[in-house]
Amino acid sequence: MADPMAHNELPQKKKLYIETVGCQMNMLDSELVVAKLRNEGYELTLDIGQADTILYNTCSVRQHAEDKIYSALGRIKTIKQQKPEVSIGVLGCMAQKDQGQILKRAPHVDIVVGPGQLGRVSELLAKAKEDRAPQMAVSLARTGGSRDHVTESFAEYDPLREPAMRPTPHQAFVRIMMGCDKFCTYCIVPSVRGPEQSRPPDGIVEEARQLAEQGVKEITLLGQTVNSYKFKTPDGRTTRLSDLLERLHDIPGLVRIKFITSFPNDMTDDLLQAVRDLPKMSRYLHVPAQSGCDEILKRMKRLYTVALYDDMMARIHETIPGVAVSSDFIVGFCGETEKSFEKSIRLVERSRFKNSFIFKYSPRTGTKADDLYADDIPEGVKKRRNNDLLAVQNAICAEDNRPFVGRTVEILVEGPSKTAQRHASEGFGPIQMTGRTSCDRIVVYEGNARQAGELLPVTITEATPMTLFGEVMTTALVGIGA
Ligand code: SF4
Fold this sequence. Notes:
Blueprint: E1 14-20, H1 24-39, E2 42-44, E3 53-58, H2 63-75, H3 77-82, E4 87-92, H4 93-98, H5 100-105, E5 111-113, H6 121-131, E6 135-137, E7 171-175, E8 177-178, H7 189-193, E9 197-198, H8 201-213, E10 218-222, E11 230-232, E12 238-240, H9 241-249, E13 256-260, H10 269-277, E14 284-286, H11 294-300, H12 306-319, E15 324-331, H13 338-351, E16 356-360, H14 368-372, H15 379-401, E17 408-416, H16 418-425, E18 431-437, E19 442-447, E20 455-463, E21 467-472
Parallel strand pairs: 1-2, 1-3, 3-4, 4-5, 5-6, 7-10, 10-13, 14-15, 15-16, 19-21
Antiparallel strand pairs: 8-9, 11-12, 17-18, 17-20, 18-19, 20-21
Helix pairs in contact: 9-10, 13-15
The site of iron/sulfur cluster (SF4) has 10 residues, from helix 7.
């Protein structure tokens, strides 16, 4: 006899597995792709073996990230052989850069979609099935500043956001710009992400308002050179990043606002004043220096000198008390002598960054540096310089974290630490929670999971180079430090 309930059953949802490599911009792209696919009947799975659709959102900034994707594609070939109905997609920067190469190396891939075309993922998945042929959607090759070839993805995304894809339920990324016009010689981003485009401010404010209504407490505004943000309305008025921050600051429910990544030349005084004057602003700036040597900066085409960077650091510290600045460095760039490397060490020493992300140079096909210069620094030397610069930075982290001991800081609680999640599931009492100060220092304390998303006063009892440890104050908060 037929099951009388059978015709009432809901249609089975399609299962989507997604892996993301790379920067925050990619994490946000994945969140937006997932949001759109969920609206079309997909649900997320963490089990790749259960998935009907497997997507890789990729990065092409370093060779290692690309190798990782090609080996993942190799591993899932057997899934496709056993279940040919499974759809496989390569999205993002590597899709834009390698295009048809991906289909040659991994013919079991169904869709290849560049970052400017992510709004079309579901349409392409359907077309690949219908035509029984792989589909590719990438932006045209960039020939230097033309704007007509890049699909503007902002408008194509559904504004509904996907909470499960966020860093935590209380934190969200909001893209305010796409692309980049700086063309640093080592960087593939301008050719894969297209020209710099600022998003209209009304859409950004509306999205942030929706996120706040969903319980988000902290938003991080994203752009390759986020402080270059400028939107001109048809009546000729310009919204700068500082103006946008003022509007976002008025949104009820938000308690903290950050922006990354900044470009040194565009660190204007009005922006620094906004960070100082708006209480919800995180007193934290990420401004990559990349090198402390003018000749290397020139080879990198970074468009500033070390003197300009020093001047910017001085203005930051004069304007914003208690601010923390972090930086990026590339070591072993083409032609980097010991003397030029030492200049990077000196810059780290005098800038006293909160932390530095240090990378060994690796040439990327399609970049100017790869065309113009020999990758002439041996791998061993790059490695040693990386370790040396890291050691200098770590010593600074240790020295600058130490004075926090005994001070009370306000943190935005992010959630239980990984160890804490395990202990909680095993039925232990209080657990280790983590949060961040306004100046982005990580604080670990003993608390409970319900505190996630709250602003809490914590007295620091111990400091390591990367982490502060503390106890929650139960009495009124006095003298919050940054
Ligand atoms: S500023 Fe330079 S390093 Fe940053 S995204 Fe643009 S080209 Fe790449």
